[in-house]
Hints:
The protein starts with a helix and ends with a helix. The protein is 84% helix and 0% strand. It is an all-alpha fold.
Amino acid sequence: MAWVYLFVAAALEIGWAVGLKYSHGFTKPLPSVLTVVAMVLSLVLLAMAVRTLPIGTSYAIWTGIGAVGTAVLGIALFSEPVTAWRVLFLLLIVGGIAGLKVTA
């Protein structure tokens, strides 16, 4: 169950990171509230996951999934640039996440 908590926490991290963009510096009420709720839930689920999973592995996976997911949504939603280097480094993060999962 800890892995489920961790992956949902990571998905919520993506949500709050993208929510920061939509909240326009916390000036828009609904996106701001949703962003803060996602932040809190993400941290609570991460805390639940680290009850049984190693903190180093959990945190690295949480931030890695959040970084990759946020970058992908930045490309899809906000027309951020797609370059070969960016894709390569995102794939390296994914490889690191997979390696941590396999060895945990």
